[in-house]
Amino acid sequence: MALVHDFLIDLRGAERVFSELCRMWPEAEIFTPIYDARGTDGRFEGRTIHTSFLQRLRPTARTFRSLLPLYPSAIESFDFSGYDLVLSSSSAWAHAVLVDEGTTHVCYCHNPFRYAWNDRTQTLARQRNPITRAILRAAFHRWRQWDWIAAQRTDRYIANSRTTQGRIRTYFGREASIIHPPVETDRFTPGAVGDHYAVVSELMAHKRIDVAVEAFNQLGRPLTVVGDGPELRHLRRTAGQSITFTGRLDDHGVAQVMQQARALVISSVEEFGLTAVEAQAAGRPVIALGVGGALETVRDGVTGRLWTGTAAELAAAVREFDDASIDPRACVENAASFDTQTFRAKLRAELDRALTGAARAPEPSRRPLATTRLIRRAARNGGQ
């Protein structure tokens, strides 16, 4: 068995899920185009890890996106000869691995590559330089073609939520079962509650942290923002005095911020949203944008509040929400339905069904393109 992930250079939600896969199969070898032991807090040390030719460039969490055009070749360069089962964990390109006809490939999909699919229009709109915008538009067009073809080779898809399931059907024309991600609920316990609200997120444009910042500027209430990313500098410039940025924290630090928060605030469309479940495991409610994964993880009026609209609507939702009326036990009980044991049992059952040959991709679609055959041949001859 082999385990595949898009990249292992930091610890976000997808990497935490992949870490659980590695715990489930401790002997499985890991394949990923780039790897940084320090950025992933040593979670994968001691494992056999195969990287691609991109590893020589030593990309970091700040620079790896500049290598975007090279990732299709990198993921197709891996040789899975002799493997019975390949399980990929994909939010971008890991689902595009090439396997032999006798190998079963199952993809646990966090989301199709958002910048080429569901976030394409917004990504292009954020580009002020028309030349950059034109280059990206062409690149996304080619990526969509490659991505669709790759999706036809995958034997079986598992989606992390109804939102992702719908996108797999719309973009790839494939059906997927749903298994919600595992949440390390035992990392969190209810504790004394403070005055602040919390945001725990990667600071990317699509996370819409600027909406939360604007709302809390209007409210003047304390907001603690945990995370790092390209939007940090901009957010700091626009934030008022009641908003604090902690940067990236370790697991203990995140747990402390969550259990002491009046509520966790989510202002983006999450495919699933691990942090929403983590906050509830700490006994704290969630004030979340009422679309996407929040509809599956937050019980409106019981474990939190769902809202829609602009920063003004978020400010109104916070102002009107009485966090003291939420029973922490209800939050903890809801979070327990997403624990690791539930995930493990469902995933093993799904893999058993896949290995029996159910719902395999049609054989003609599993034949690699001529260009990918050349890439594989180069890898076998020492190109990796």
Quick recap of the structure?
It contains 14 helices and 13 strands.
What do these coordinates show?
- Helices cover about 40% and strands about 15% of the residues.
- It is α/β, with parallel strands linked by helices and about 375 residues long.
- It has two domains: about 1-180 and about 340-370, 3-Layer(aba) Sandwich (Rossmann fold), CATH 3.40.50; about 185-335, 3-Layer(aba) Sandwich (Rossmann fold), CATH 3.40.50.
- Helix 10 links the parallel strand 12 and strand 13.
- The longest helix is centred in the middle third of the chain and has 24 residues, at about 130-155.
- It is globular and about 60 Å long.
What does the secondary structure layout of this molecule look like, with pairings?
Elements: E1 2-5, H1 13-24, E2 29-31, E3 49-50, H2 71-76, E4 85-90, E5 104-109, H3 120-125, H4 130-153, E6 156-159, H5 162-172, E7 176-178, E8 197-200, H6 209-219, E9 223-226, H7 232-238, E10 243-247, H8 251-260, E11 264-266, H9 274-281, E12 286-289, H10 294-297, E13 304-307, H11 311-320, H12 328-336, H13 340-355, H14 370-383
Parallel strand pairs: 1-2, 1-4, 2-3, 4-5, 5-6, 6-7, 8-9, 9-10, 11-12, 12-13
Helix pairs in contact: 6-11, 9-12
